[in-house]
Amino acid sequence: MTIALSQAAPASLITPAALLDEPRLMHNLRRMQQRMDTLGVALRPHVKTAKCIEVAQRQRALGARGITVSTLKEAETFFDAGFDDILYAVGIAPGKLDAVRALRQRGCRLTVLVDSVAAAEAVVQAVVRAERQAERQADAALEVLIEIDTDDHRAGVKPDAGVLLDIGRTLHRGGAVLRGVMTHAGASYECYTSEALAAMAEQERAGCVQAAGRLRAAGLPCPVVSVGSTPTALSARRLDGVTEVRAGVYVFHDLVMVNVGVAGLEELALSVLASVIGHRPDKGWVLVDAGWMAMSRDRGTQTQPVDYGYGAVCDEAGQPIDGLVMSSANQEHGVLSWRDGRIDPALMERFALGTRLRILPNHACATAAQFGHYAVLTADGTLAQWERMNGW
Amino acid sequence: MTIALSQAAPASLITPAALLDEPRLMHNLRRMQQRMDTLGVALRPHVKTAKCIEVAQRQRALGARGITVSTLKEAETFFDAGFDDILYAVGIAPGKLDAVRALRQRGCRLTVLVDSVAAAEAVVQAVVRAERQAERQADAALEVLIEIDTDDHRAGVKPDAGVLLDIGRTLHRGGAVLRGVMTHAGASYECYTSEALAAMAEQERAGCVQAAGRLRAAGLPCPVVSVGSTPTALSARRLDGVTEVRAGVYVFHDLVMVNVGVAGLEELALSVLASVIGHRPDKGWVLVDAGWMAMSRDRGTQTQPVDYGYGAVCDEAGQPIDGLVMSSANQEHGVLSWRDGRIDPALMERFALGTRLRILPNHACATAAQFGHYAVLTADGTLAQWERMNGW
């Protein structure tokens, strides 16, 4: 698989702009789908990175089945655009269950997530409330996954916890549709070797499969075993017992993924186009008109092997300039300097006032969220504009 | 001046939501305007924090003259809403001068900023290009301030630098309208005593006044002497020679300003309403549905005397819960725990599933930018929605 050379950024773009390189995007989408096809599992991409209909349509065309969302607004937006199989992968707040049911009644197969008996009871109460109102019992149904904690990282119940069966029984006996289990090994972001990544992927798989087995052994339904994160999805050596994988940031990749080791710089599809607005020769600084408002405040590489500050600097055509980073940022000012701290007066001439540069982000989910649309450099060399949704 | 008790958040709000307490906002606006009136200078508020027409209208009604913006899109949006005296306070990129001129031709008195001879020459070239096209020479004019560096912090020329006069002459002789000088003492954010703040305010004032004096002594016009930041504006003891003060974050204040010492927790007008979605009793964690996407990734208090993590937790009515913070965050998950690290199982019962809480932000400019509108708790107890603009 080869990646087309990046296109030049059209002069008409106002800086800062979120540049999306479509050939690189397509490379990333194909790479992940092919891996999942080879491993024999379905891919349910997480749309929280791009929040963009055009990206999700391309994932679906390549074989993705269903989508994962991080907010109800994403669910509503993507349902309106023709995506009707949606997992809302954040533990459900009881106050949101009426909105979930409203979306389901419109025909959206929206599945929610719980990790406690209290949340399961809230779901059951919502089903009971709905049954009193619904003409057909099917209209009152709520489909649910139980969140499993396989890496001691965030939410979820441990695969061997007694409460897992309590949650399953509460849902099943209470009239909710228990669809299965899901886990997300967020700790994979702190793995830096292929061995550690493969081990984390296996830990994620094994824990989720174990939880599914316990539910089934207790006579409870569990058709879905859903795992995933970009690092584990790209590192898993086998996925026996898993039915679907979720991954998000792989669509764009970013410097955090480069540090983790699952992407190369040449695979990063998102960058921020910026213009030089000034110089501080005494400090070795080049100032650009992209600050933290454009890059986000995400400093995800700060604790990684290579700290890129607020981003890695490329020339206007997208060629990385080794060692040049955005070392600090104010709201609309970015300070570019050499990562090793040397003061280099030659930078001032090399990057004269008005020069345009691209900045690769630490964390694509956070940087993309600062923009209302992408300026897309398409494969045929034309410029397109793809909207993204934000907010709740 | 008393601050009204904060209103309860309406149950209809979907979490996370950006809650804006209007009585607190009005208190903050009055406090700043009264200070500027007492010091005998005009207030030109920076709209980059709220990016909200309703907020700027209230500032103007209290006496503010003109506005400051951080992007051209802000200039366009606020001009369309009736604000026609605008300072674009980021060094101008040459590629943006045509857009500046287009806005001026529509009647907007938009002033731009330069801090180098190269930028001054770009402005002059734009004026010359315009004169060839314009029917009246006045239509080609560009008004310019020179940025002065009074705190060795970011952009600008030193008050005593020879290049200051070169820039002034380039502009004045080239046909641009040299309106004066401006500075921003961003280093005031790192001051923590009233003495240090007052000294920084005096340094900011004295440096900018010195630069103005040098331009005038060289026979160049300099009617405007513009200084400001929220900490220095609230700490200056005199502003002799200054014509206007710019400040932004004072409209909402935030935890960074509390640490700096220019605001109290009870003056923070912006918070994020969140719902409890889970618990980790083994870790002492309460999970909420506001993560870094809602709070932003800003960790501005990390290097300050009190580190609030991703925010300070209040009850639903806005009463701070001393010591409880958002200690970590994922995209749509926030982890609440005691700041001292103790594991407290009682938190789980105190904040049951579905409980709503408010989180005070580190940095209001960054947190507000994550939202498309504010849910406004008005003085009369009703809920209003005020839009904000984002993007470029």
Largest sheet of chain A, described in full? 8 strands, parallel
* Poorly predicted runs of 5 or more residues of chain A: none
Count of alpha and pi helical runs of chain A: 12
Mean pLDDT of chain A: 95
Number of DSSP-assigned strands of chain A: 17
The arrangement of helices and strands of chain A along the chain is: EHEHEHEHEHEHEHEHEHEEHEEEHEHEE
What is the rounded Rg of chain A? Answer: 23 Å
Distance between the termini of chain A: 38 Å
Quick one: which chains have the greatest interface? A-B, 60 and 60 residues
Look at the structure and name the CATH superfamily of the largest domain in chain A. Alanine racemase
Q: What's the CATH first level of the largest domain in chain A?
A: Alpha Beta
In total, how many domains does the architecture of chain A comprise?
A: 2
Describe the strand arrangement of the main beta sheet of chain A, using strand numbers: 2-9-8-7-6-5-4-3
Specify the helix fraction band of chain A.
25-40%
Helix-strand makeup class of chain A? alpha/beta
Oligomer: homodimer
Overall geometry of chain A comes to elongated
Could you say what the CATH architecture of the largest domain in chain A is?
Alpha-Beta Barrel
- Quote the beta fraction of chain A: 15-25%
CATH topology of the largest domain in chain A: TIM Barrel
